[in-house]
Specification:
The complex is a heterodimer. Chain A is α/β, with parallel strands linked by helices. Chain A has 3 domains: 212 residues, FAD/NAD(P)-binding domain; 105 residues, no CATH class; 125 residues, no CATH class. Chain A is built from 14 helices and 20 strands. Chain A is globular. Chain B has a single domain, classed as ACP-like (Non-ribosomal Peptide Synthetase Peptidyl Carrier Protein, Chain A, Orthogonal Bundle), CATH 1.10.1200.10. In chain B, helix 1 crosses helix 3 and helix 1 packs across helix 4. The termini of chain B are close together. Classes of the chains: A alpha/beta, B mainly alpha. Chains A and B meet through helix 2 and helix 14 of A and helix 3 of B. The structure holds flavin-adenine dinucleotide. The site of flavin-adenine dinucleotide has 40 residues of chain A, from helix 1, strand 15, helix 13 and helix 14.
């Protein structure tokens, strides 16, 4: 009998595991894939190391900072700032037609940039910063207010509203076209006020730190162990059944598989559908919900020289080719109007990275990519690789002559590696902030609990473990 | 444990939770929260560490007793008197 079984060895599952194992629980993490990491993993291809996903860590505050998510996460995991070996970004930008706003880990740069491009909006920006600081994560009353409406009231320049929303939506909005005010505030702080950074060794360093710590504390990790069923008796989870039929008993189950995915695993019958949001008195949270539809394609190009040497020294460029930014499920296979261009080389490292790379992320249609047969899929990847790159080089120096190898992933890849419905990066637009489900000892963590990104999902794992699995 | 030993143990726990804090000037009668950066999650860790290290169970209603060093030591004194330092 385990004290807690955790479904999924992504960032949130591993972090939850560390907390529970540290406090002497018998814990087992079950991961259906052959490797850890989930949405954020790493691989080696034709002699080069690549990260999946990681552009940058958010919430990067300098060593010694005591407040904020990063400091709290380090305390909770009993890790030190130096363990993560984070180098700050060199500088990023938001590029719209004819207007560019640079930003760095110093908010004053963004303020000055807004002063240069939108001189009459500076006071409103100052007010926005104050409101974002005031926003209380623990008070849900304004959490779901529309950020878009609020910004539209605050700024008289619609273009600035779009430019501020673009990077924050790309890095964490499960809601289409809009963002919850709570999520906007959290992302604004994470990206503009705290900042971006990256470990020299990329995401593998973070994952290795987490898994090593977890194992050293006595935690068990079973790979290739997909959970097929969550066994329910009398309103309680009694354990899980693996793909091979093996049964494991547990007092608590914490799932990072996603809300809809977790509900489907429960063997207590069809999801009860309850109208309205989240809960009906006595029934617990509604089990039926929209799994989310926003998915990505990403191209990766290995280059024969550092991007900085060809005049591209920006860390991240968020681009959009019209005055309005459309954050919706892509109707085309890939939405070429906007995207995120990132070079892992452009951080302030002590020594350069071994390889030079540029990666581009764009919105993509899961429905399109998942219906392709094998040969069409390969062909379409090549075609769209070229189109995505062509779109991006409108905003950064053209690096195409320096490309020596490429790779690309699609919504199909995301489904394969994470099992999330529709390849939805940020999961369901409806979050379950308290992590509870209709069953008293089944909880969710990770993306669908409400915190996204690497720092967010680690925080989610920690707080759900603390709140639900540690107290008894 | 004597009260002095309990105090030492609490300091050790605080140092484990917040390794970057300088605890040398911590005042016994002032709330921890006014002196160290501790949020509610960290605060729970004091309780959890006591359970991990000494098998001491503290009911949730009593958490307020762990406000300052002085009140914490007073609260733990009867619970920890038989614990071997
Ligand atoms: C292209 C891309 C770029 C990104 N860029 C960044 C970035 O720059 N910075 C940043 O901070 N974040 C970034 N993210 C987001 C970040 O990767 C995620 O928010 C985070 O990794 C989510 O972690 P998680 O633990 O919630 O979920 P996941 O990583 O999805 O973990 C869930 C795990 O559960 C496993 N699982 C599912 N079902 C089962 C089952 N039935 N049985 C057993 N195991 C199961 C899955 O295999 C998976 O390993 C990016 C994501 C993508 C895709």
């Amino acid at each position: 009998m385990y004290d807690t079984i955790i479904i999924g060895a992504g960032m949130s599952g591993l972090a939850a595991g560390i907390r529970l194992a540290y406090f002497d629980q018998r814990v087992c993490i079950l991961e259906r894939h052959t490797t850890i990491g989930g949405l954020n993993s790493f691989y080696r291809l034709r002699g080069r190391d690549y990260d999946v996903g990681l552009h940058a860590l958010t919430n990067i505050t300098p060593k010694g900072t005591k407040k904020g998510p990063l400091a709290r996460l380090l305390r909770q995991l009993r890790m030190s700032w130096d363990d993560f070996q984070i180098s700050p970004q060199l500088g990023s930008q938001i590029a719209f037609p004819g207007v560019r706003l640079g930003f760095s880990n110093d908010l004053d740069l963004l303020r000055a940039e807004i002063g240069r491009e939108f001189p009459r909006q500076v006071d409103s920006f100052t007010r926005l910063v104050e409101q974002v600081i005031e926003y209380d994560d623990l008070d849900p009353s304004h959490a779901e207010m529309s950020a878009r409406e609020h910004l539209t009231d605050l700024f008289s320049e619609p273009l600035l509203v779009e430019m501020l929303l673009c990077p924050l939506m790309f890095y964490g909005s499960a809601r289409e076209h809009d963002m919850d005010w709570g999520q906007f505030s959290i992302m604004f702080r994470s990206i503009f006020m705290e900042g971006l950074g990256r470990p020299h060794a990329g995401v593998r360093l973070i994952l290795k730190l987490l898994v090593r710590k977890y194992r050293a504390l006595g935690g068990e990790l079973k790979l290739k162990s997909g959970v097929e069923r969550i066994a329910v008796e009398d309103g309680r989870v009694v354990g899980v059944v693996l793909k091979g039929g093996q049964q494991l008993a547990a007092r608590h189950v914490l799932s990072s598989a996603g809300w809809c995915e977790t509900m489907r695993l429960c063997d207590d019958g069809q999801p009860v559908s309850i109208p309205g949001k989240n809960s009906a008195p006595g029934n617990g949270p509604a089990r039926n919900r929209n799994a989310g539809r926003l998915s990505f394609c990403e191209t990766i190009a290995a280059l024969d020289m550092e991007p900085g040497k060809m005049g591209h020294s920006g860390t991240i460029t968020f681009f959009n080719d019209s005055p309005r930014f459309d954050w919706r499920q892509s109707e085309a296979p890939c939405d070429l109007r906007s995207g995120v261009i990132c070079s892992p080389n452009n951080f302030d490292y002590q020594r350069p990275l071994d390889d030079a790379t540029i990666r581009i992320t764009v919105l993509a249609s899961h429905a399109y990519w998942q219906q392709l047969g094998e040969s069409a899929y390969k062909l379409e990847k090549l075609r769209w690789y070229d189109r995505i790159t062509e779109s991006a080089v409108r905003f950064v120096p053209d690096y195409r002559l320096h490309v020596i190898d490429t790779d690309m992933f699609t919504p199909t890849t995301i489904v394969r590696f994470t099992g999330h419905d529709n390849g939805a990066i940020y999961g369901s637009p409806e979050k379950q902030f308290d992590g509870v489900t209709h069953l008293e000892n089944l909880f969710v963590c990770g993306t669908d609990q409400g915190f996204v990104g690497i720092i967010g999902s680690i925080t989610s794992g920690i707080s759900m473990a603390n709140m639900h699995c540690l107290r008894d | 444990m004597t009260n002095a030993e309990i105090k030492k143990e609490i300091l050790d726990i605080l140092q484990a939770i917040a390794p970057d804090e300088d605890l040398t000037n911590l005042k016994d009668e002032v709330s921890f929260r006014d002196q160290i950066e501790l949020d509610s999650m960290d605060f729970l860790d004091i309780v959890m560490e006591l359970r991990k290290r000494h098998r001491i169970q503290i009911p949730e209603d009593d958490y307020i007793q762990l406000d300052s060093m002085q009140s914490t030591v007073a609260y733990l004194e009867p619970l920890m008197k038989d614990v071997v330092a």
